[in-house]
Amino acid sequence: MTSSPVTSPMTSPLDTPGATPMMAQYIEIKAANPDCLLFYRMGDFYELFFEDAEIASRALGIVLTKRGKHGGADIPMCGVPVERSDDYLHRLIALGHRVAVCQQTEDPAEAKKRGPKSVVRREVTRLVTPGTLTEDRLLDPARANLLLAIGRRKVSDAREAYGLAAIDISTGRFALSEVEGAELAAAIARHEPREIVLSEAIHADPALARLWRDTRAAVVPLAAAELEPASAERRIREQFGVKTLDGFGSFSRAEIAAAGAALLYIERTQFGAKVPLSAPSREASGATLAIDAATRANLELTRTLSGERKGSLLDAIDRTVSAGGARLLAEHLAGPLTSLQKIARRHDAVAFLVEDGSLRAQLRDALKAAPDLARALSRLGLGRAGPRDLAALRGGLDAALAIAEGLGGAELPEGLARLVQRLDAADRDLATELGAALADDLPLHRRDGNFVREGYHPEIDEARLLGQDSRKVIAALQARYAEATGCRTLRIKHNNVLGYYIEVPQAVGEACLKGLMREFVHRQTMVDAMRFTSVELGELESKIAGASDRVLALEAQVFDGLSQRVMEQADRIADIADALSALDVAASHAELAVELDWTRPQLDESLAFAIQGGRHPVVEAALRKAGEAFIANACDLSGEEAGRIRLVTGPNMGGKSTFLRQNALVAVLAQMGAFVPARAAHLGLVDRLFSRVGAADDLARGHSTFMVEMVETAAILNQATRRSLVVLDEIGRGTATFDGLSIAWACLEHLHEKNGCRALFATHFHELTALSKRLPRLDNATLKVAEHRGDVVFLHEVVPGVAERSYGLQVARLAGLPASVVARAGTILKGLETSERERPARARIDDLPLFASLSEIAPPPPEPAAPEPDDTLGRLLDTIDPDSLTPREALDALYRLKAERTGGSRG
Question: Which residues cross the membrane (predicted)?
Answer without folding.
Answer: none
